[in-house]
Amino acid sequence: MSRLSPTAQGIVLMISAIFLFSTMDALAKALMDRFEVLQVVWARYAGQMLVVAILLTPRLPQLIRTQHLGLQLLRSAFLFAATWCFFTSLSFMEIASATAVMNIHPVLLTLGAALILREALGPRRIIGIALALTGALIVIRPGADIFSASALLPLIAGACYASYALTTRFLGRDEPILTSFLYTALIGTFAASTLTVPVWQAPGAWDWAIFAALGCVAAAGQFCLIRALTVAEAGAVAPFGYTGVIFSTLWGLIAFSEVPDRWTLLGALVIIGAGVYVWHRETRSRAVHPARS
Predict the structure, then answer these.
(1) CB neighbour list of residue 40: distance below 8 Å, 6 or more residues apart
(2) Helix axes of 69-89 and 6-31: crossing angle, nearest 10 degrees
(3) Which end of the chain is more exposed for a tag (fewer CB within 10 A), N or C?
């Protein structure tokens, strides 16, 4: 790995992170055959909190300090809502379809950055956003016989995740990234532990092993993602986030015998194309006008 250039390292780490996240989603979907969604969300956060505590204990007194407690709470709430909505959607949808719609979040982030952070929003970015929304509608197909309100859940999850990324971008100006990582695990674990009490079911030994694997995979994915964005520019690695559609399709085929239909594939291609188009315009604009980036 050290022989690779920083950009190549970032790409490998980004693809690894997305693979780990898709594995987390597959484990969550498998667990929801026997457990309520909230208990699976709890496993995701509690396992990650355990990993964080083990790795970051010596630095906890420094990392727990924050200048923006309210914003940390809001950021963590956005990610918790995204996780809850997306995991719930996996109970009703194929994993590839849910992932395709969830992948609308990069273009929603572009819209949010323009509205809240006053970043430029030109006609080409508006076109990209409109195309991504069109792709999501192709996948969920409002008005079709297969459509239900639950099909909107990954769209809501994408909006929440974009809001999470937006607050992360804002916090990154003043806070160490590990501080934000710690608060995400801490607040998510507290919220899930509180909410899961009424629906708690005692797991068996094998279920505890899957719970632990879910949390470890989530933590490993987060660390790979953070590392990818540390060693390489975000613009260089961002397009590889769309490999999640490929990984989720493979998990759907292998673990759940799910075969995406042509509309899901078409919608996924439209969403990916819109995201790559927006990324291309942003990187090209920064190259032409470096002072604005």
Answers:
(1) 28, 31, 32, 87, 214
(2) 60
(3) N
pLDDT of residue 64 exceeding 80, the answer is yes
CA distance 243 to 75: 25
For the CA atoms of 42, 244, 92, 40, the dihedral, rounded to the nearest 10 degrees, stands at: -10
Q: In sequence order, which residues have a C-beta less than 8 Å from that of residue 269 and are 6 or more positions away?
A: 135
Q: Mean pLDDT across the stretch 110-137?
A: 74
225 contacts: CB under 8 Å, gap ≥ 6: 13, 14, 17
User: Is-contact 164 82, C-beta < 8 A?
Assistant: yes
The number of residues in the chain equals 293
Domain boundary assignment for the chain:
6-104+150-252
Query: Residue holding tokens 């604009």?
Result: 285
Distance CA 253, CA 256 (A): 6
Mean pLDDT of 235-244: 75
Question: Which pTM was predicted?
Answer: 0.84
